[in-house]
Amino acid sequence: MKIKRTIICKGLSNYKLNKKISKVYTPKAGDLAVFKVLELGKHTSLQGENGNNLYIFPGDYIMAAFGNRYATDQFEGYVPKEYHKEYHVLGKGGAIGVLASMHAKLEEKGTTNLQLVGYVVDENDKDKIINTKYLNKEKIKFNPNKKRPYQIILSLGSAMDSGKTTTAAFLSRGLQAAKKKVAYIKLTGTVYTKDRHLVRDCGANLAIDFSTYGFPSTYLCTRQEMLDLHETLLTQAEKINPDYVIIEIADGLLQRETAMLLKNAKFMSQINGVIFSAADSLGILSGIQLLKQQGIQPLAVSGLFTASPLLINEVEGAVNYPILTLEKLAEPSVLAILEKKVKAA
Q1: What end-to-end distance do the CA atoms of the chain give, in Å?
Q2: Which of 33, 109, 290, 302 qualifies as a FRET site for 240, CA 20 to 30 Å off?
Q3: Model pTM?
Q4: Angle at 314 between CA 308 and CA 318, to 5 degrees
Q5: 195 lies in the same domain as 53
Q6: How many Cβ atoms are within 10 Å of 39's Cβ, its own excluded?
Q7: pLDDT tens column, 72-123
Q8: Does a structural domain hold residue 145?
Q9: Of 105, 305, 267, nearest to 188 (Cα)?
């Protein structure tokens, strides 16, 4: 049986396939399994272990992990609590679950549907299912009192596809131009390494995300899981001795994990500044108001709205924050804005 392995399987070496427990075992997020492709929908390819496109066809066998997904513009799906005759690809990087809802634009294509073949187990213990979270890697417990010899900037947004990643990427470019060493962390989301590749190619010295430590997604993780993951990723970033660490939190301010982190005083105590992105002027205004209610003052605003001079004018007339277009983010002068605002805070 030829098995196509998705990127979430990276780091897996020896294993066996246990088909006998398929109908009786209740999976957890991160549990690895092998599936047979039944029908193609939105996903006609997955991301392979080396980051490339792995094209799939009905009858193919793939290895992927169970995971939850929250994506307002894509799929909502969950790790099943019982055996199903059919499972669904929720994310291109290998997050599998059972669909709960989808955006209307995807209804015609639908999901790529799978049949569970068996679970991936330890080669020496057929009952020990391999879970990707921290597979062969150390978890570091969150330490809110640790002194950080670098600045941490959060890239937040009003919603999915508001420009958070592009803001982080071009900010990395600007800081690089200012001769600063930059690490990028995507702390939440669903496995697919496109975002961290963009930031890397824009100039970040290091670009990592939650899937670096085996999380197929962070949706429905506990607060402690999120804080420990944050610490673990920062520990990895510290190996390059960065001047700045840019942390992107996926989706919008109302999303579960985003809201949970922003309301956590110990997490926020380590943040030196926030750049807030939105697709339009009203998104900027409402987002700023919501952040202010939580005691958060953004350093600047950016996002998709900056592609429109008219929207920029609307925002300029309503708020008193620096507006960072892509051009301004990529200039070394962005450092002066960050340093001024960070010191003032």
Answers
A1: 59
A2: 302
A3: 0.96
A4: 145
A5: no
A6: 12
A7: 999 999 999 999 999 999 999 999 999 999 999 999 999 999 999 999 999 9
A8: no
A9: 267
